[in-house]
Design brief:
Its cofactor is [4Fe-4S] cluster. (3R)-3-methyl-D-ornithine binds at residues 289, 311. InterPro entries: Aldolase_TIM (IPR013785), CofH/MnqC-like_C (IPR045567), Cyclic_DHFL_synthase_mqnC (IPR022431), F420 (IPR034405), FO_synthase_su2 (IPR020050), rSAM (IPR007197), rSAM_sf (IPR058240). The termini are far apart. The model is unreliable at 374-382 (pLDDT under 50). The protein has a 4-stranded mixed beta sheet with strand order 9-1-10-11. A 4-stranded parallel beta sheet has the order 2-3-4-5, with helices on one face. The chain has helices at 2-10, 17-26, 29-43, 88-100, 118-131, 142-152, 156-166, 181-187, 194-206, 223-240, 266-279, 295-301, 318-321, 330-339; strands at 50-54, 56-60, 105-109, 136-139, 170-171, 211-217, 243-250, 285-286, 308-311, 343-347, 353-356. It is α/β, with parallel strands linked by helices. 41% of the residues lie in helices and 13% in strands. The longest helix is centred in the middle third of the chain and has 18 residues, at 223-240. The chain has one domain (2-362): Aldolase class I (TIM Barrel, Alpha-Beta Barrel), CATH 3.20.20.70. It contains 14 helices and 11 strands. The structure holds iron/sulfur cluster (SF4). Iron/sulfur cluster is lined by residues 65, 67-69, 72, 74-75, 111-112, 143.
Length: 382
């Protein structure tokens, strides 16, 4: 049965949730990777021998959060002496650095601050667009939309339309974590349900805001729950086509209330990438992670169905707080992709190729374009 299913999926055919679970559990590893690679090449002929990356900056605007997810090492509760918020001037300064370093995208990422309603995001996004119109704002997810709508006392649709009008270009799909009810309730009991997360994303797609989708692996979920998460995304994608990409990443065990509970191995991660490529036949891009899984796992993911290796991450503070210690720079990311057997290419948020690095002699040389945990990319260059 497995060989038939692999053959059908590699040819772009639709497989069932049960078949996906069977592949995830039992398909021979190399056969699974080969089928996913075949599906990737057929789905994205313009990227057959290419793998992409993007230069972006996460802007962490506040660590104050009322949602208290158990896997999160970044947030503090309201009134904590360790709480902070970045003012607009600082946010704009970081956007300016991003532009100066050749970044094309910013990702707003932060806590559910009890006072931040729609107005806060409208102000921030319109100021960014006014000062840096060339920057794409690819940020937030259903959880933030639900929270800001509640704080402002407006319907979800109004919140979506208002932040889009203010300058939000697309949603990053944060907060998906695990969509099935059992594992979601265990790790994020105060977050909206998985069904609600999808409902809000569907509304956003319908209102013209496309998004990516994410998944947090390794907090104690079962294999069947991992595949259910994929199935829930595929169902919405059947109706909207609004998910540009699927991005699984792995739980980091430090400084949070789950206290080191982790079960994702590199092979589990690679199998998930491959099954996602085969099962999510209606999603174009599958992103491999180097930040949480390590650089070699990231390279391998390119042979298991991933077409993209994410971003240089000029700033990252969230998963770093939970223990992710991998750092990279543009040259290394290019090197990782090239030595994995693909032509590296810088992409835009919407996956157009901005620069194809065919010849190592022509590689960009700005060593400032590197990832940082801290918040001032330009001054931390050593
Ligand atoms: S993951 Fe997000 S919503 Fe959950 S506690 Fe952390 S900052 Fe808050």
């Amino acid at each position: 049965m497995t060989a038939d299913v692999l053959e059908r999926a590699a040819a772009g055919g639709r497989i069932t949730e049960e078949e996906a679970l069977e592949l995830y559990r039992n398909a021979p590893l190399h056969a699974l990777g080969k089928a996913a690679d075949t599906a990737r090449r057929a789905k994205l002929p313009y990227l057959a021998d290419t793998a992409t990356y993007i230069i972006e900056r996460n802007i962490n605007y506040t660590n104050v959060c009322v949602t208290a997810c158990k896997f999160c090492a970044f947030y503090v509760p309201p009134k904590s002496p360790d709480g902070w918020s970045r003012d607009l001037e600082e946010i704009l300064r970081r956007c300016g650095e991003t532009v100066e370093l050749g970044g094309t995208q910013v990702m707003f990422q932060g806590g559910h601050h009890p006072e931040y309603g729609v107005e806060y995001y409208e102000r921030a996004f319109s100021a960014i667009k006014e000062n840096y119109p060339e920057l794409v704002i690819h940020s937030l997810g259903a959880s933030e939309i639900q929270h800001m709508a509640k704080v402002s006392g407006v319907p979800i649709e109004d919140a979506i339309v208002r932040i889009k009008t203010a300058g939000l270009d697309s949603l990053a799909g944060a907060g998906a974590e695990l969509l099935p009810a059992r594992p979601r309730t265990v790790i994020a009991p105060l977050k909206e349900s998985g069904e609600r997360w999808l409902e809000i994303m569907e509304k956003a797609h319908t209102l013209g805001l496309e998004s990516t989708s994410t998944m947090l692996m390794g907090t104690g979920e079962t294999n069947a729950e991992r595949i259910r998460h994929l199935a829930m995304i595929r169902d919405v994608q059947d109706r909207t086509g609004g998910f540009r990409a699927f991005i699984p990443y792995t739980y980091q065990p430090l400084n949070n209330h789950l206290k080191g509970r982790t079960q994702t191995t590199t092979l589990e991660y690679l199998r998930l990438i491959a099954v996602a490529r085969l099962f999510l036949h209606n999603v174009n891009h599958i992103q491999g992670s180097w930040l949480t899984t390590g650089k070699e796992a990231g390279q391998l993911s390119l042979h298991y169905g991933a077409d993209d290796l994410g971003s240089v991450m000029l700033e990252e503070n969230v998963v770093s707080s939970a223990g992710a210690r991998h750092r990279s720079n543009r040259n290394e990311l290019i090197h990782l992709i090239r030595t994995a057997g693909r032509v590296p290419a810088q992409r835009s948020t919407t996956y157009e190729l901005l620069a194809v690095h065919e010849d190592p002699a022509d590689d960009p040389v700005d060593e400032r374009v590197r990832s940082h945990i801290a918040s001032t990319a330009l001054t931390l260059v050593d």
